[in-house]
Design a protein that fits this description.
By secondary structure, this protein is mainly α. It has one domain. The chain has 12 helices and no strands. Helix 2 crosses helix 4 and helix 2 crosses helix 8.
Length: 192
């Protein structure tokens, strides 16, 4: 799961939502000094990732992507699941999409002072550029994958990612629809 899914799964709590957003951005000692609720959100993020990685339907989808995209198959599915979550937002989203994203932006901006300074640029960029909107279109998805290329050791493995999303549209959608209720059940264990 990527940003949109993590934020959606923890929508009912500002601290959990912030922790879910930063779960991949913080390390060791940084986590230990976060406020308790945000630390729990980081833990929740990591449990969501483990459940997703171990899910048999996700593993099956990733095996089908590996021939073309190698070790980046799980990265592709994580990012793509946000697009497919948006496509199913009326059923799976916790609030109308615009209301949801605006509230998430406000919560992240409000928590900025509690977060390590080195991740402030990610928070600021997300809020300023309204990044969550990129998950709402095929063009936005292409932009997300394009932004990843400079950070990858083998960027050529993302060649044809748009075709893979198109060719396996039904597989991605089916896998998300099977997985998301399991993730919602996990998220519900964090409710007060």
């Amino acid at each position: 799961m990527n940003f949109l899914a993590h934020l959606a799964l923890s929508y009912y709590s500002a601290d959990l939502q912030v922790g879910n957003f930063i779960g991949d951005l913080v390390r060791g000692r940084e986590v230990a000094v976060l406020p308790l609720g945000i630390r729990q959100g980081v833990e929740m993020h990591r449990r969501i990732d483990r459940l997703t990685d171990a899910d048999p339907d996700v593993r099956r989808l990733n095996r089908s992507l590996r021939a073309r995209h190698g070790r980046y198959a799980p990265v592709i599915s994580d990012v793509a699941f946000d697009y497919f979550l948006f496509l199913n937002w009326d059923t799976l989203g916790p609030a109308p999409f615009h209301d949801f994203t605006e509230k998430a932006y406000r919560r992240l901006a409000a928590a900025r002072a509690d977060l390590p300074p080195r991740i402030h640029p990610q928070i600021d960029g997300l809020v300023r550029h309204r990044w969550l909107s990129v998950y709402t279109s095929v063009g936005g998805m292409q932009e997300v994958f394009q932004r990843m290329l400079p950070r990858l050791s083998r960027p050529e493995m993302l060649d044809g990612v748009s075709e893979s999303l198109y060719d396996r549209h039904a597989d991605f959608n089916r896998t998300l629809l099977l997985l998301f209720p399991r993730l919602q059940a996990l998220a519900n264990t964090y409710r007060d």
